[in-house]
Amino acid sequence: MIKQKRSQENLIYLSSQLSKILKKSFGKGPDSCYCTLREQIVFFHIRQFKTPAEEVLLQKGETNLATKLRKTIMDAIFEQFKQELDKILDIEFESFLQDWNFETNTGLVIFISKVSESNNDITSQLNQTKNEILEDQIAIVYSEVYKAPRHVRTFEVTETICVLECTNVISPLEIQLYKKGMEYSDVLLSHSNDLKKSIRSNRERFSSGFNLKIYDVFIFLDYKTSKNYVVFYLK
User: Fold this and answer.
1) Which of 30, 41, 195, 197 has the smallest C-beta neighbourhood within 10 Å, fewest atoms?
2) What is the DSSP letter of 208?
3) What whole-number distance in Å separates Cα of residue 178 and Cα of residue 212?
4) For 70, how many CA atoms within 13 A lie in the half-sphere containing its CB?
């Protein structure tokens, strides 16, 4: 019980620290930042993060620019915050994934440990669950925008967080652009945004796969591993 309490206190502390760093870096902190730890992977669910500058860019239709600025700053924050994560959780973190939904003003940041990184994906330490409804629906949605994934796997993080892992949805051209340091190019950002819009606009298709209601969806294109992750938050 004492160990569990300390663990929860650590997560609350890390949520507070990330909020402070975000406020210092962006000039405005989020209204809430909730941390979930599962094995060697940390999830930070962030609400009400948009800054006045981002609001202006979005009003002018500069979504790619707003995304690029936020992600570039987050790259720098990762190098700073990972030291705190390593120290508090006694886990060495290697990389992170981020997705920001400007429409709902929510974001999800996933920190991936060196152990998970060596296994090439964030799902290596999560429990796989069989859900044919989710896997069939994600294949349909993907095929409408780009192409159906070769494989889809469903993983349960907690009772209210579910991850879908999709393979073979990132094209060779996109991988080459990433390798050339063009991760935040308009080409990759536009494709990523189109895919995210399609999945979010079709979120009701996935509802029958859960006993709970979907209240948030995040999509990650991991060019390093050539995989895509869809994370559902439920309530």
Assistant:
1) 197
2) G
3) 36
4) 31
The pair phi, psi for residue 229, each rounded to 5°, is -125, 135
Q: Which residue has the tokens 């069989």?
A: 130
Q: Provide the pLDDT for residue 102.
A: 95
- The answer to whether residue 120 sits within a structural domain is no
The pLDDT tens digits for 146-164 are 778 888 888 888 989 999 9
Residue 111 DSSP symbol: E
Residues contacting 100, CB < 8 A, separation 6+: 49, 67, 70, 71, 107
pLDDT in tens, 92-115: 888 899 999 999 999 999 998 876
Pairing of strands 161-167, 151-158: antiparallel
138: containing domain: 127-234
Residue 59's domain is classified under what CATH number? 3.30.980
The answer to whether 121 touches 144, Cβ cutoff 8 Å, is no
15 plus 111 within the same structural domain: yes
- Which of 196, 34, 6, 227 is closest to 116 using CA atoms? 227
Q: What are the residues whose beta carbons fall under 8 Å from the beta carbon of 131, sequence distance 6 or more?
A: 154, 209
What is the rounded distance in angstroms from the CA atom of residue 199 to the CA atom of residue 218? Answer: 9
**In a 10 Å sphere around its CB, with 0-12 CB exposed, 13-18 middle and 19+ buried, how is residue 173 labelled?**
exposed
Number of domains in the chain: 2
